C-alpha cells in the first residue's frame, strides 16, 4: 500500500471515529433500526448559562475577621458552597473564586432560584449545650425582662416538654437562660442521615460524630446522666433529650416535629458544613431557558452560514486547493468539537466566539500558503515545487500569528473572569488545532494529487 493510500484511509477512518465521538446519536439511530440491542454512550456538550438558561450569582465573602491566610478561607467557602450546590442536584454547577473576596456560582437549568440562593447562603451552626444552673437562669431572665419577668422562672422556661417558650425568649432577647455551651459543635460532626423511628414512624436525624466529637460527647453524657442535653441549630434549640446513660460510640439522634422534607433539608445542611466566613449576595443574573435556546439556535445558524460563505470563497478563489482547505476545515471542526467533549469545555456565547475566531485563523493560514503557491506557479514552477515553496515560505508567518494569538489566549485565561476564560479556552484549543490542520492535513491533501493526471492542469491551482 502506497503512503498516499495509507494517509487517505487513516484520514477517512480518523474522521469517522471523531464524528462518532462528537455525534453518537446518528450512529445510535442506525443501531436502533437494526435491532442490535446496543447503543454508544452519548455525552452531550456542556452548555453555559447563556445557551442553556440558569442563574449567575456573585457573592462577597467577609474576610475582615480572618487572622490567617485569607485565600485559604475563601477556598474553604468555595468548597462548602460547592457541596451545598451538589446536594441541591444541579447539573454541572460552576463554583469558583474571583479576586480576593468574590465567589462566582453558576447554576445552569435551575428552576427554583430562590431556594438555591437560600441553600447557598445558609450557615447552619450545630451545637450541644448542657444545663445552666437555675439561679443563673433566673438572674438572666430578670436582667433581660425587668419588671415583665414577674413569675417567670428558669425552671418553667426550660421545661424539656415544651421548648417553644424558650425559643421565643432567645429570639426576643438574644440570650439563653437555660443552657450553656459544652464545647461540642458542628466541627465534631462526621455525617448526618435521615432515619425514621420504628415505633412512631416520625423522621429523625441520626448523627455520626468524628473522633474529637465522640470523645467530647462521651464526656458530656457521662457528666450529665439523668440531666438534659440540648441540641441547638442556628442558635435555637431543636431537641432537648434526657441523657439515660453515657454514650461513647459517637452516635446521637435528633428528634423533633420535623416533616420528612424538613428533616431531609436539615440533613443536607448539616452534611454540607458551615461556612468559614459570612457571605453576601451582591449580584444576580437569571437567563430564561427559552432565551438560552434561542441564543443556541442563532449561534448554530450563524456558524453554518459563516462556514458556507467561507467554503464558497475558498473554492471560488483557490479552486482545488480551496476544496482541500474545506475538507481540512471539516477535520479541524471534528477535532475541536472532540476536544470540547473530552476536556470538557463549557460552551458559552463567548466560547463560540473564540471558536469562530480560531476558525478564521485556520482559513487565514491556508490563504497565506495558497497565495505563496500561486506566486510560485506563476513563476513557472511545477506543482510539487510550488507546494514545497509555498508551505516553507508561509510557515514563519503562520507560526508567528498562531503563537502570538496563543499567548494572548493564555493571558486572558489566567487573568480574567469565567466568561472571558471560556473565550480564551476555545480560542487556544482552536489555534493549536488550526496550526495542525493547516500545516499537516491540508498539506497532505495537496500532496495526494501530485503525480496524478490533473497535476498539469494548473488552472485548478491558480
UniProtKB/TrEMBL annotation:
GO molecular function, one term: protein-transporting ATPase activity
Domain Protein export membrane protein SecD/SecF C-terminal: 280-441
Transmembrane recorded as keyword: yes
Localization per Swiss-Prot or TrEMBL: Cell membrane
GO CC term, one of those recorded: plasma membrane
Transmembrane segments: 323-343, 349-371, 403-423, 429-454
Top-rank taxon: Bacteria
Record-linked Pfam families: Sec_GG, SecD_1st, SecD_SecF_C, SecDF_P1_head
Keyword Plastid assigned: no
Job description of the protein: Part of the Sec protein translocase complex. Interacts with the SecYEG preprotein conducting channel. SecDF uses the proton motive force (PMF) to complete protein translocation after the ATP-dependent function of SecA.
Family named by the database record: Belongs to the SecD/SecF family. SecD subfamily.
Quaternary structure and interacting proteins, as annotated: Forms a complex with SecF. Part of the essential Sec protein translocation apparatus which comprises SecA, SecYEG and auxiliary proteins SecDF. Other proteins may also be involved.
Protein name: Protein translocase subunit SecD
Gene it is expressed from: secD
Amino acid at each position: 500500500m502506497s503512503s498516499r493510500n495509507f494517509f487517505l484511509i487513516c484520514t477517512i477512518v480518523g474522521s469517522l471515529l471523531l464524528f462518532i465521538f462528537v455525534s453518537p446519536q446518528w450512529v445510535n439511530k442506525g443501531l436502533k433500526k437494526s435491532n442490535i440491542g446496543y447503543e454508544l454512550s452519548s455525552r452531550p456538550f456542556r452548555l453555559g448559562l447563556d445557551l442553556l438558561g440558569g442563574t449567575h450569582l456573585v457573592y462577597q465573602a467577609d474576610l475582615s475577621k480572618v487572622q490567617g491566610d485569607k485565600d485559604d478561607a475563601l477556598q474553604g467557602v468555595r468548597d462548602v458552597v460547592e457541596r451545598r450546590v451538589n446536594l441541591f442536584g444541579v447539573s454541572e454547577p460552576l463554583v469558583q473564586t474571583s479576586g480576593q473576596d468574590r465567589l462566582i456560582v453558576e447554576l445552569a437549568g435551575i428552576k427554583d432560584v430562590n431556594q438555591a440562593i437560600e441553600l447557598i447562603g445558609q450557615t447552619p451552626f450545630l451545637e450541644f449545650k448542657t444545663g445552666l444552673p437555675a439561679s443563673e437562669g433566673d438572674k438572666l431572665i430578670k436582667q433581660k425582662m425587668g419588671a415583665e419577668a414577674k413569675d417567670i422562672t428558669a425552671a418553667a422556661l426550660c421545661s424539656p416538654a415544651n421548648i417553644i417558650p424558650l425559643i421565643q425568649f432567645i429570639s426576643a432577647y438574644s440570650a439563653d437562660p437555660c443552657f450553656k455551651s459544652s464545647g461540642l459543635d458542628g466541627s465534631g460532626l462526621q455525617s448526618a442521615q435521615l432515619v425514621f423511628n420504628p415505633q412512631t414512624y416520625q423522621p429523625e436525624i441520626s448523627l455520626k460524630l468524628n473522633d474529637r466529637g465522640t470523645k467530647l460527647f462521651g464526656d458530656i453524657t457521662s457528666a450529665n446522666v439523668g440531666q438534659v442535653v440540648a441540641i441547638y441549630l442556628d442558635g435555637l434549640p431543636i431537641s432537648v433529650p434526657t441523657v439515660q446513660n453515657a454514650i461513647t460510640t459517637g452516635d446521637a439522634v435528633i428528634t423533633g416535629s420535623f416533616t420528612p422534607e424538613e428533616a431531609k433539608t436539615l440533613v443536607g445542611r448539616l452534611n454540607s458544613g458551615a461556612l468559614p466566613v459570612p457571605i453576601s449576595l451582591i449580584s444576580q443574573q437569571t437567563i430564561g431557558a427559552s432565551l438560552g435556546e434561542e441564543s443556541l439556535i442563532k449561534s448554530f445558524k450563524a456558524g453554518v452560514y459563516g462556514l458556507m460563505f467561507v467554503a464558497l470563497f475558498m473554492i471560488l478563489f483557490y479552486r482545488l486547493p480551496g476544496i482541500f482547505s474545506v475538507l481540512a476545515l471539516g477535520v479541524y471542526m471534528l477535532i475541536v468539537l472532540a476536544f470540547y467533549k473530552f476536556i470538557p469545555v463549557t460552551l458559552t456565547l463567548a466560547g463560540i466566539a473564540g471558536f469562530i475566531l480560531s476558525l478564521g485563523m485556520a482559513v487565514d493560514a491556508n490563504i497565506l500558503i495558497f497565495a505563496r503557491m500561486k506566486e510560485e506557479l506563476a513563476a513557472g514552477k511545477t506543482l510539487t515545487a510550488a507546494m514545497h515553496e509555498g508551505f516553507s515560505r508561509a510557515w514563519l508567518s503562520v507560526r508567528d500569528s498562531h503563537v502570538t494569538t496563543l499567548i494572548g489566549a493564555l493571558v486572558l485565561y489566567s487573568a480574567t473572569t469565567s466568561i472571558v476564560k471560556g473565550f480564551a479556552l476555545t480560542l487556544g484549543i482552536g489555534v493549536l488545532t488550526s496550526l495542525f490542520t493547516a500545516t499537516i492535513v491540508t498539506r497532505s491533501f495537496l500532496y495526494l494529487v501530485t503525480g496524478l493526471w490533473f497535476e498539469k492542469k494548473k488552472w485548478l491551482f491558480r
